[in-house]
## 1
Amino acid sequence: MALYALGDMHLAFSIDKPMDKFGKVWKKHEEKLEKNCRKLIGNEDTFVITGDHSWGKNLSEAKADLAFIAALPGNKILLRGNHDKFWDAKKTAVLNQEYEPQLHFLQNNHYHYQDYALVGTKGYTFEGPFYINSKGQIVGWDEANEKQAKKLVAREAERLRISFESAREAGFRKYIMFLHYPPTNIVEEESIFTRMAEEYGVEHVVYSHCHGESRYGDSIHGVHHGIRYHLVSGDYLNFKPEKILD
Ligand SMILES: [Fe+2]
Ligand SMILES: [Fe+2]
């Protein structure tokens, strides 16, 4: 038994959205992904998919993408990404009803792997624009955007707390935390999300959303304050799911 994660499949089986214009790594990425999943993941394993599943603008446009995910091996748990327009956070129960038992949608609830609770939410980070001087140093940022970002961060932190508390009330004391957005942005060393991970004694934080060489280093990698951070964006992993736990 193992716990795997990968995010940002960016599927588009029903609509025209070619991904290969984003680089070689995206060429036939669905085929690569499916092959890797079949090789690595068994049906007794758990596979958490950390958002940006589908380019579909609504559930009917996302259906074929969700069917592709449902056909992959393992117990699939999905997190919401910023592009997942088919998923209204307030209507997660409807999705869970419709896709039970093939897919599980993680929002204001928790799942588990062995004695670990799997908790999470989309998260949010302020992505600028940042103003840079001739030496490449950040000298300021868009303050109106930052104000809006703070609201989104607060809402997501509240949703994350609901997820943690649902697990705690169910008796869990060990946690793996999933975010779609990175836990910190490029100017932060900590955030409400890293602090919450520390508060609950999380062992692993798993996130995605960062695409392309220039963005892979936007947030924390490896062990930080005793917690192991994993970036699992599909393109970063060349569409090979990462094993988080045995
Ligand atoms: Fe993405
Ligand atoms: Fe994203």
## 2
Amino acid sequence: MTLESELADLGVDVSTDRELLLKVSSDWSRMSPVLQDKLPPGRYVADLVVRPTSAQQVADVLAVAYRQDVPVTPRGAGTGNYGQATPFDGGIVLDLRGLDTVEVTGETVRAGAGAKLTTVDEVARAAGRDVWIFPSTKGSTVGGFVGGGSAGTGTIEHRTTSDGFVVSAVVAPMDGSGSLFTVSGAELEPFVHTYGVTGVLVEVEIRTDPAREWAAVYGSFGSYADLVAVHRTLTTLSVAPRLASGDEPALVPTLPVDLDPARWSLRVIAEASTVDEVTARIRTHGEVVRVARDYAETDVLSGMSYNHPVYFLQQAAPQPRLFHIESSGTPLWDDPDAVRACYPGPVHLHLELFQHGPGAMIVAEYTGEADLLAGMDRLEAIGVGVHSPHQWYVDRNVELARETARRTDPKGLLNPGKLVDAPPVDSRVNIGVVR
Ligand SMILES: Cc1cc2nc3c(=O)[nH]c(=O)nc-3n(C[C@H](O)[C@H](O)[C@H](O)COP(=O)(O)OP(=O)(O)OC[C@H]3O[C@@H](n4cnc5c(N)ncnc54)[C@H](O)[C@@H]3O)c2cc1C
């Protein structure tokens, strides 16, 4: 029996449409000039896209793929920016968006891996709960966020997806069993941020808080030092803000809101009772531009955080090509000139706030991979932690993932090429974890 007919017998949707295959075979790695060159569209293309609609169908598809030695690359919304959903060995791209159930169960939300975080958040809020963390790509899937994401709105209080965000997960292994298993607690580690190489997440249970009222607060400043003077105080509020993003004038006009392009911008998602304190602190160094006590307005701020300002700048100024480095550490506040000096040409900082200090997307002109890597060493030398978004290797819990995959994917068919002994461009630190 051919692979296609075996899959069709399972009742899953199977497509070999070339346009669709091209689309699902690449992700947002196009944000990286290194990955643009290494993973151009059309170089690595799946043979089939399979769209299951139930957990058991996922397990059944994996059993067929195991029997026929066919690689399977799980995929959510394809917003990952490390090329980590690229099907290097062809085979099946498993589009999980059909698994989209969402249920609030007391203090947690149980969601099908393909449920969008917009929906998860909407359902949680309607039930009086706040999802701990979601990325600036709120249209991405919860399975993709757990499988490939890391931080976002909520990170100041709750850190990363590896810090208790996931309560349990139902996993489909690639071991020929056609079965599912559930993991929780410490057992979850090898399944979080490991790009599906240890198993396909079919359902995840994530943590929530009682819903709070959130407000979007915009401030503006005449200098980076003034912006930082406020940014660095925001972890001391009585309720941690959900987000605190800052941008230089070079990035401000590219943001999809009307802000003074000559001033440094601060955007805070603040809990309602702390708004007066936030605005008072902003006024000591700059101006309060706007306060919107409306949840939908806070989503606008989320959509201008993390990698998004880099993307907006790349769109506004496609040449010369720009790259970014994910970074963290107090030199971003204390010595921005030393940070900028790590790369030639104009270097821009998009600031975020973590629990114990600042993070930033450092944006510079691309002059080649060797130059980019050399700058990472210079950043480390001045005490900045770096993570490279220019490589597709599993770089969190690598040894544990390898050990787990020996059991859950003995033939190495899950998302091939992403799990190696030692990632060549080693990540050193995970974004959201400040040293
Ligand atoms: C402009 C921009 C902004 C971004 N902002 C953020 C941000 O704020 N925070 C952040 O953490 N990330 C961010 N990202 C990265 C990305 O959006 C997140 O990783 C996202 O949550 C991925 O979800 P997805 O559904 O698109 O997953 P995909 O891109 O489809 O997949 C991501 C990885 O997970 C694997 N995977 C997908 N589904 C599953 C599953 N069910 N089981 C196992 N493995 C699976 C894939 O194989 C792939 O390796 C950003 C990216 C861009 C382009």
